[in-house]
Amino acid sequence: MDFTSLTAAALAALAALAAGPQAGAPAEPGGAGTAARPIAHDLRITVSEDGSRHSSRTHTLTCEPTGGDHPEGDAACDLLIGAHARGADLFAPVPANTMCTQQHGGPATASITGRWNGEPVRATFSRANGCEIARWDAMVPVLPSTVPQPS
Q1: pTM for this entry
Q2: Cβ-based neighbours of 94, under 8 Å, separated by 6 or more
Q3: What are phi and psi for residue 47, nearest 5 degrees?
Q4: Nearest to 51 by CA among 112, 114, 144, 125
Q5: Measured between alpha carbons, how far is residue 81 from residues 9, 18, 69 in Å?
Q6: How confident is the model over 70-110, as pLDDT tens digits?
Q7: In whole angstroms, what is the distance from residue 68 CA to residue 63 CA?
Q8: In whole angstroms, how far apart are CA 137 and each of 21, 83, 140?
Q9: Residue 84 to residue 74: CA distance in whole angstroms
């Protein structure tokens, strides 16, 4: 191959690389040339009925589409998506200086970490007073109901 042919071949290869892998092909979600879209709602939920690490259990939850191993994934996603649509932040802590009833709702604790609507989430829950009990109850079925179920 002479110098002119070699130069032309190199230029053609560079032009093809510059055009990218999508050149001449339709863009399809998840196809070649497209970046995978990260899941915007991806949570890890850890609950301990008695407040200890030894009794804790962890579930994963993804929404839109619903996935993970959460036992009530569809209902949990419906609650969170509905709250977000109304502008409610169910992950927010009880505001400082809030007056709460001094009642004890049990030793259960929970933590939720991950991403919701693409934003980082790091929330902890307890049943230490009336405000925390109400906050926990607002998260059922994301968190389990601690009310004994009739047998």
Answers
A1: 0.72
A2: 100, 131, 132, 135
A3: -130, 140
A4: 125
A5: 54, 41, 18
A6: 999 999 999 999 999 999 999 999 999 999 999 999 999 99
A7: 9
A8: 50, 14, 5
A9: 15
